[in-house]
Amino acid sequence: HALAIASWTVHDYFRNAFSWDKLGQSPANIMPRAEPDKYKVDEKNIERITKTIKAVTKSFGADLVGIAPYNPNWVYTEDRMGTPIEMTEGMTSVIAIGTIMDIDAISTTPSMTQGFASGMGYSMMAFIASSLAEFIRLLGYNAVPTGNDTGPSIPIAVEAGLGQVGRNGLLTTKDHGARVRLCKVFTDIPLQHDGKVDFGLTDFCRRCKRCAEACENEAISFDNEPSFKIHSKSNTKGIYRWAVNVDKCYDFWVDNGGECSTCIAVCPYNLRDGIMYMDPADYWEKRLAEQ
Fold first, then answer.
1. Which of 29, 45, 130, 136 could form a disulfide with 17 if both were Cys (CB 3.0 to 4.6 A apart)?
2. Residue 33, Cβ neighbours under 10 Å: how many?
3. What are the boundaries of the signal sequence (predicted)?
4. In sequence order, what are the residues at sequence separation of 6 or more whose Cβ sits closer than 8 angstroms to the Cβ of residue 14?
């Protein structure tokens, strides 16, 4: 329980991480210098700057990165407090970022040890997105780092080629299943965009249904085909997929005393390099043996 709480520290307490504005002065150990001119990007160097942005993102700790065209339809009209969201004008791209969660910790779901993997994912989101945004600002462009706020991460990640949406309603990657945490950076720096991917997930999910069978609160659909049906006001309308009953999902979280990752743990795409279930005690024995 202590570990799960501590893992959220960066995300929850370093709130400047998601600032929309340039953060300010140089660190104490880096000599200040005059504000650089805006880094010019044109057709001659756009491929190189795109690769640079991706390399920098991974250098900050990201495991996955893709770039989608900016779509104002994927920006919320207001935040959860009802305050209108007005995205910075001129945005052209969204950099979708994925961090892989610890596979053994996820396998202890729905324990608090599993919660540590999720919390670390969120803290990494805050660190990576804020660092990348500040890097882009220092090149002379606008950058807005966001976690789960401002816009839905999953459709943006799909547009950026990170994966597809599975029966469990989550972004599912070919190599790590849905064991990823997502964040994104909206920006106006000229970048090349990635395309969507299709590795056959929808056809696989039609047959599999393992996540639906494992869900303790029956929040995941057993329907053979995706549809436009929704089960909650939190489900976005007009999307062809298997909508999850997120109210049932959250009810289990409340009863459990913490979040759940069972639908992630049992997914065969996650099981390529892990086991389905691990007792928390076995997790810690393994970790201690590694010391």
1. 130
2. 7
3. none
4. 126
**Distance of alpha carbon 88 from alpha carbon 151, whole angstroms:** 13
Distance CA(153)–CA(181), nearest Å, equals 9
Peptide bond into 110 cis (omega under 30): yes
Chain segment 87-120, per-residue pLDDT in tens: 999 999 999 999 999 999 999 999 989 998 999 9
- Which residue in the block uniquely carries the two structure tokens 């140089």? 26
CA distance 58 to 181: 14
Task: Give me the chain's average pLDDT, please.
Answer: 91
Q: Tell me the pLDDT tens digit for each residue of 230-278.
A: 999 889 899 999 999 999 999 999 999 888 999 999 999 988 666 788 8
Helix/strand/coil (H/E/C) assignment for every residue in 38-66: CCCCCCCCHHHHHHHHHHHHHHCCCCEEE
User: Residue 32: pLDDT band by 50, 70, 90 thresholds?
Assistant: low
Considering only CA atoms, which of 165, 240, 169 is closest in space to residue 198? 165
Give the tokens for residue 195. 């395309």
Report the distance separating Cα 266 and Cα 31, nearest Å.
50
- Please report, to the nearest 10 degrees, the dihedral formed by the alpha carbons of residues 64, 65, 70, 72 taken in order: 30
Which residues is 153 bridged to in the sheet?
none
Q: What is the pTM of this model?
A: 0.90
* Non-local CB neighbours of 234 within 8 Å, separated by 6+ positions: 246, 247
Phi and psi dihedrals of 64, rounded to 5?
Answer: -130, 145
Task: Report the half-sphere exposure of 173 (CA within 13 A, side-chain side).
Answer: 22
Q: Given pLDDT bands bounded at 50, 70 and 90, which one contains residue 25?
A: low
HSE (side-chain half, CA atoms, 13 Å) at 255: 8
Instruction: Please report the pLDDT score of residue 33 as a whole number.
Output: 65
DSSP state, residue 266 = T
